[in-house]
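A further point concerns the way the authors explain their paired sequence and structure data. An entry of this sort, consisting of the sequence and the corresponding backbone structure tokens, reads as follows:
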Amino acid sequence: MSGAQPLALSAAFILEEGFEMQELRRVVDSMAEAARAAGVPIVTGDTKVVPRGAADRMFITTSGVGLVPEGVDISASNARPGDQILLSGSIAIMAWR
């Protein structure tokens, strides 16, 4: 999202059984460094372990919360030709076809 002042992030991990702790530390350290550089703390998270082969090794999902400053209008109607749009979920699957 563009225009909002980010306040905090969450991060959830789905790890395959047997995932190496050293690799997890590398990923978490990298995420922490990026969050510090952006000035947005990671304030909560969750970790689930699934059977080997069930998660392509690791999935990470994140969500963020922020405040929209007064006078800033965040709306799809403000989209203009040339803007970059990221799609996820079922809408992205339909757009890909």
Notes: Residues 90 and 96 are 10 Å apart (CA to CA). Strands lie at 5-16, 42-50, 58-67. The chain has one domain: 1-68.
